[in-house]
Amino acid sequence: MKATVFLGGGRITGALAAGLRLAEDDRRIIIYDRHPEKLRALRRESRVEIAQDLKSAIQNAAMLIVAVRPASVKQMLAEVRASAERPPRLSMSLAAGVPLKSLRAWLGTVHWVRAMPSPVCRVRRGLTSVSFDRTVTKAERIQVRQLFEHVGPVLEIAERQMDVITAAHSPSHGYHALATLAKAAENAGLDRKTALIAAAHALSDGILYWRESGLGLDELLHEAATPGGIAAATMAAADKSGYARAVKRGLAAGIRRARLNAKL
Ligand SMILES: NC(=O)c1ccc[n+]([C@@H]2O[C@H](COP(=O)([O-])OP(=O)(O)OC[C@H]3O[C@@H](n4cnc5c(N)ncnc54)[C@H](OP(=O)(O)O)[C@@H]3O)[C@@H](O)[C@H]2O)c1
């Protein structure tokens, strides 16, 4: 059986391999990386095979997933070309900001997919956004969707939206908001553990209720914030202090960073 082959055995590869195994997906996974200790850890954790070299990894690949950092993609693909092995027709890049046209230029013989998974795929709850090059067939699209649907929801988007969604859908927003709210509650008088419990409920209960109730955000805000009450005062002060501006600037910085990767 041919395998799903990851080039790069770092954080996101580890999360995806663990999520696929948690989903009881028993596909053959081969990982190639220049750090043997990372590969041994992945083998222990997720029953993956370690590629002995790049050539054998490509020989065994039904699908290639490029999971190196954006600045390393060009070199990684040069190594694929130099291996003189024919890569599988379906290949995917997880590299933030690296456009399909660069991928085509660096390795033109394959059908390219850009995917942006989340590390939350490890627990099968991570959103993955995907964008397909024109050459990708319907059957290949299904293959890609099926892979990521094992580890969370999949959103197909136009490539021009990829950098924005990359900056917008990272779970780091959740961790950042959680840390910031918990710290403020702690500074205001709660002990650390209670502050974290309170902040986690504030964020996750709101989202859970929004998802499950089918109500609009306006209706939920109306229900939670009595005019003249505590929630209303808290939100008004946060808005006045530039909450929306801070989020907008944060997002814009992430998008700029992703766009810089297109110039690598
Ligand atoms: N982390 C996330 O949450 C996340 C989510 C979605 C997408 N992504 C994307 O996924 C990609 C990987 O991110 P990551 O966080 O998993 O990175 P990472 O932890 O740094 O893993 C990349 C691995 O690939 C290795 N590598 C790089 N070039 C190589 C080469 N030519 N030959 C062999 N091994 C090579 C790296 O080794 P060295 O350290 O020696 O370079 C490293 O072990 C990035 O492009 C990122 O934009 C990440």
Tell me about this structure.
- The protein has 2 domains: 3-165, NAD(P)-binding Rossmann-like Domain (Rossmann fold); 172-261, Orthogonal Bundle (ProC C-terminal domain-like fold), CATH 1.10.3730.10.
- It has helices at residues 11-22, 36-46, 54-59, 73-82, 100-106, 138-149, 162-168, 172-187, 192-213, 217-224, 230-240, 243-261; strands at residues 3-7, 29-32, 49-50, 61-66, 90-93, 111-116, 128-132, 154-156.
- The chain is of the alpha/beta class and 264 residues long.
- The chain has 12 helices and 8 strands.
- α8 (172-187) crosses α9 (192-213).
- An 8-stranded mixed β-sheet has the order 3-2-1-4-5-6-7-8, with helices on both faces.
- It is 53% helix and 13% strand.
- The protein binds NADP nicotinamide-adenine-dinucleotide phosphate.
- NADP nicotinamide-adenine-dinucleotide phosphate is lined by residues 8-13, 33-35, 38, 67-70, 72, 75-76, 79, 94-96, 116-117, 119.
List keywords for this structure.
alpha/beta, Rossmann fold, 12 helices, single chain, 8-stranded mixed sheet, 264 residues, 2 domains, binds NADP nicotinamide-adenine-dinucleotide phosphate
Domain count, please report it: 2
* Average predicted local confidence, pLDDT: 97
Shape label: elongated
Tell me what portion of residues adopts beta-strand conformation.
Answer: 5-15%
End-to-end distance: 36 Å
Present as ligands are: NADP nicotinamide-adenine-dinucleotide phosphate
Helix content: 40-55%
Q: Return the CATH class of the largest domain.
A: Alpha Beta
User: Architecture of the largest domain in CATH?
Assistant: 3-Layer(aba) Sandwich
CATH superfamily heading of the largest domain: NAD(P)-binding Rossmann-like Domain
Judged by helices, strands and strand pairing, the structural class is alpha/beta
Radius of gyration: 21 Å
Q: What's the helix count?
A: 12
Q: If you consult CATH, what is the topology of the largest domain? A: Rossmann fold
- Major beta sheet, strand line-up: 3-2-1-4-5-6-7-8
pLDDT below 50 for ≥5 consecutive residues: which ranges?
none
Order of helices and strands: EHEHEHEHEHEEHEHHHHHH
The total count of strands amounts to 8
Biggest β-sheet description: 8 strands, mixed
